[in-house]
Amino acid sequence: MAAGKLHVYLVRHGKTMFNTSRRVQGWSDTPLTNEGIEVAQFLGRGLRDISFDSVYTSDRGRTIETAGIVLQESNQTHLEINELRDFREFGFGKFEGELEDIMFGSVMKHLGFQTLDEAFE
After folding, report:
1. Which residues are catalytic?
2. How far apart are CA 57 and CA 46, in angstroms?
3. Between helices 61-73 and 34-46, what is the axis angle to 10°?
4. Residue 2 within a domain
5. What domain range includes position 47?
6. Cβ distance 59 to 85 under 8 Å?
7. How far apart are CA 9 and CA 30, in angstroms?
8. Structural domain total, the chain
9. pLDDT of residue 11
10. What is the pLDDT of residues 41-90, one digit of tens each?
11. Domain for residue 69, yes or no?
C-alpha cells in the first residue's frame, strides 16, 4: 500500500438464523448458518492476497465468528480481532427477535401509511 493511503474493507457478517427466518436482529445475537459460514470461507479465500494490518468487529458473536473465519481462510490468524461495542448494529428494542413484517407494519402504521409501498410512493 502506498504511503499516505488507507484502504478499509467493510464486511457484513455471514447469514444468521434470524436472517433466514426474517427476524429483526440488531443487538440480538444468533449463530451463523451453514451458508453464512461458507460465504465467510469463500470471502477469506478471496482475500488471501491482501495483507491486513488490523481487524475490527462489533462485540456480537456473529461478527466475531465471521471475522475469525475470514482470517482463517486468508491465512492471517496472527491478527487479533478488536471487538468494539460501538460497531454494534442498531438496537431495535421491543422488536428484537420479532418478524420483520410485524416491525415494518408497526412502523408504517405509526408513520400514517397503510402499506410499505405507500410509504415509498
Report:
1. 13, 89
2. 19
3. 40
4. no
5. 17-119
6. yes
7. 24
8. 1
9. 94
10. 999 999 999 999 999 999 999 999 999 999 999 999 999 999 999 998 88
11. yes
